[in-house]
Every structure is written in C-alpha cells, then in structure tokens.
Design brief:
Shape: elongated
Mean pLDDT: 87
Largest sheet: 7 strands, antiparallel
Helix content: 25-40%
Structural class: alpha+beta
Number of strands: 13
Order of helices and strands: EHHEHEHEHHHHHEHEEEEEEEE
Strand content: 15-25%
Distance between the termini: 63 Å
C-alpha cells in the first residue's frame, strides 16, 4: 500500500470464523479490524439457502457493519434457478454483491439466466469507489419508488417524499465527498450516514404497516437505504487511521445437551458405557458397510470407538461418516464376527459447527443368525428436528443377531439436508 496507495486488497475466506481460525489459518476478522484488506469474498459454496444465509449472516455480524463482504456462490453446485434464489437472498441481507466460482462452470443456460436477470444492467463495482456507488444507488431510488406506485404499493405522497429524500441525500453525499477529500478522510460523511440510518429505521417501521405489497415496498426501501449506509461506513472506516486491534480468540461453541422429556419414546441420550462391552467396535472384528460415501468420507469412523465429543474442526471425515447427498435410502450395516445378544444401540450423530445432524427418520433392523431376512426392531420419526440432540439410545429386550442395520428412508435425513445421513459412531451393547 505504501507503493500503490490506491490498490484494493481482498481475500477469499472460509465464512465460519472458528473453522477459518482452526483449519485454514484465515483470521479474517483480524484482517478487517486492522484494515489489512479492503473487502472479503466468503467461500459460501453450498446448494442450501439456509446454509448460505448462515454463512453470510455470521460474517455480516462479525464485520460490525463497516466492511464490504461479497458472498461467494458455488456455480457448479447450483442450477440457474438456485443461483437466482441465492443472489436474491444475498441482496436481502444487504451485501454489495456476489462472486461466482468459477467461470468454467458458467454454462450457456446459467449465463442467460444471469444476463436476463440480476446482471441485466451494467453496475458499478462498489469496492472500487463506495461513495460513487452510494450516490448511484440514491440516484436510482426515485425510479424504484415510482415503480412501487405503479404496483399500488405506495401512494403519491409517499413516493414524492421518498424521491425528495433520496435526492437530498445524494447531494449531501457528493458534497461530503468533496469536503472529505479536502480533509483527507471520510469524517464529512458522518451526517449523511446518520440521516440514512434514520431513514432506514423509519422505512422498517412502515414495513410493519399497511398491505402486504406496501410492506414489501418499504422493506426494499429499507434494504437499499441500509446498503447505502454500509457503503459510506466502509469508506469512512478505510480512510480513517485504525488503532491496532490484537487477534481475538476464536469462538468456541459448547453445544447444549438436550435431555429427553419424561415419557418420550425409547430414543434418548445414551448412558455412560461403563464396563459394558461395545460389540460394534472394529477392534472386536465387527465389519461396517454403507450404501454410499460423501466425497472424502468413508465408513471407518463409524465403529472406531471415537464418539462426537471431540473437535471436528479440520477433521470431519476422520470423526464421522456421511452418505452421498443423493435421493434414496441410506444405510449402515454392522456385521458381527459371530452372532451376539444385544439389548441397546447408541447412535452418535455427526457434529458440525456446534450443531448435531440427527436423522429425522430412521429404522433399526437386525438379521437373525442363519437368516437373510431383516426384522424391524425400532422406528424413529421426529418432524421437529433439533440440532442440540447429540445421540440416541435405543433399548430393547435381548435379541440374537448376526447383523444390525440402521436404515434412513428417502428424505429422512436432517431437516436442512434431508438426503444426507451423517453419523459419528454406532455402539451396540
């Protein structure tokens, strides 16, 4: 920056700050706090809207509303319709835009959807000149509110007032920019930032009144005004000398253990194993097979004796098995070296970023010695998926078995990823 003061520096980072710190050595919050970078691109590569929302929401919160963040979208993971949904979500969250990874995956169909949709008009890149971008958004706001009037969402008075306020703020921003250039910093923007935050609060209050279309219109106005305030805050922050802030410890989430309600079905939290023998251990000769594997995963962790009470950061595939995330049944089969008498099965669900990914529906079955027929032992169904449930323990009358199967019917996985089965350990007593 000493050589080229106008150079813009950015980084592509893992969005989850704990994983970024412990696994990829990307202390991106520290980089933002100390102005080491001008903006960030989060690698929120997913096909799930909820996961994208979680990734970007965490980064927005930790950036303290003063830095520009672009949401990185995995082009190869999404079809054109999914890409449009993800871009719309990013806009609702108030981010300045998206980055698409990677161009090699931009098929003609996806390019057509983008050029006819969100990218149909040429736009300013906000990080190049946040103040110019802010003035451009304010300059376009009267056109938008006029459209809301045509849709019957706003009356003439509201449209006129909003257009007038947008134009006044646009002029204020441009004048503040001139004043700020004379001062050599961004403090002249403080008045405009304050006025924008006040307008956003008023628009959000109106978003709770009137017809549904009126509420949507006011929400969009609040989003646009909030976005302009973010652009100006980011410019102001980067043009002010920052006092050095030392690195903070990464957040360590301690997941709560949910205790089953009295009278619940047999699936509960498992008791301590004590001196009981775990018949499922690989060290006893029990063989485990599965229907499929998520890329990079394998079945070995399912009976290695390691539950889900140690950190999974950077070693997901070492501590858990995940099925292929595809429609259809998923299953785990334990084949004992010789027939066993069992009275309990404990299933420890995989942990990821402080959440436990229990299946909503699964069936426990066994094969009697000398038979190839599967006999149902227990069926679990929980439409209220809860991420704090660490494990299930199923207890039953003594049963002789040669094999045990845990089968997840199609769509029976975690609510947010129903085609995935994700298990850390299976124990049999």
């Amino acid at each position: 920056r000493t050589i080229r003061p106008g150079l813009k520096l950015s980084a592509a980072v893992v969005p989850d700050i704990r994983r970024a710190r412990l696994s990829t050595l990307q202390n991106w919050k520290h980089w933002l706090d100390n102005q080491f970078v001008d903006f960030l691109n989060n690698m929120a590569y997913t096909a799930n809207l909820w996961e994208l929302e979680e990734h970007t929401g965490q980064m927005v919160k930790l950036s303290e509303g003063r830095s520009l963040l672009y949401a990185g979208l995995g082009v190869w993971l999404n079809d054109p319709e999914q890409l449009m949904e993800q871009i719309a979500l990013v806009r609702e969250q108030g981010l300045p835009g998206v980055t698409l990874f990677a161009s090699v995956h931009l098929t003609e169909e996806k390019i057509e959807a983008l050029t006819n949709g969100p990218f149909r008009e040429r736009a300013l890149l906000p990080h190049r000149d946040p103040v110019e971008a802010a003035a451009a958004v304010l300059g376009d706001l009267p056109r938008k509110v006029a459209l809301y009037r045509e849709l019957g969402a706003l009356d003439d008075g509201a449209v006129t007032a909003a257009a007038r306020e947008a134009e006044q703020l646009r002029k204020q921003v441009l004048k503040a920019r001139e004043d700020g250039q004379d001062k050599g910093d961004g403090t002249a923007l403080d008045g405009a930032i304050s006025a924008l935050e006040d307008w956003k609060a008023r628009a959000e209050a109106k978003a709770g009144e009137g017809s549904e279309t009126a509420q949507r219109a006011w929400r969009r106005i609040a989003q646009d005004v909030g976005y302009v305030a973010l652009l100006l805050r980011s410019h102001r922050f980067l043009t002010q000398p920052a006092e050095y802030r030392p690195p903070e410890e990464p957040p360590l989430e301690a997941p709560a253990v949910a205790r089953p309600k009295q009278g619940e079905a047999a699936a509960t939290q498992p008791a301590a194993a004590g001196t009981a023998t775990n018949l499922a251990l690989a060290s006893r000769g029990t063989r485990v097979t599965v229907d499929s594997n998520f890329p990079g995963y394998g079945p070995r962790p399912l009976n290695d004796g390691e539950r889900n009470d140690t950190s999974e950061e950077g070693r997901w595939a070492e501590v858990a098995w995940a099925s292929g995330e595809i429609p259809g049944e998923h299953w785990i089969v334990l084949e004992f070296p010789e027939p066993v008498e069992a009275t309990r099965v404990d299933i420890y669900w995989a942990r990821d970023r402080g959440k436990f990914w229990s299946s909503q529906t699964y069936v426990i079955e066994y094969q009697p010695p000398g038979s190839e027929r599967w006999v149902e032992l227990y069926r679990h169904q929980d439409p209220e998926w809860r991420t704090q449930i660490t494990a299930h323990s199923i207890q039953f009358q003594p049963v002789n078995m040669a094999k045990l199967r845990i089968r997840q019917p199609e769509g029976g996985g975690p609510a947010r990823r129903p085609n995935l089965m994700w298990v850390a350990e299976v124990e049999v007593y």
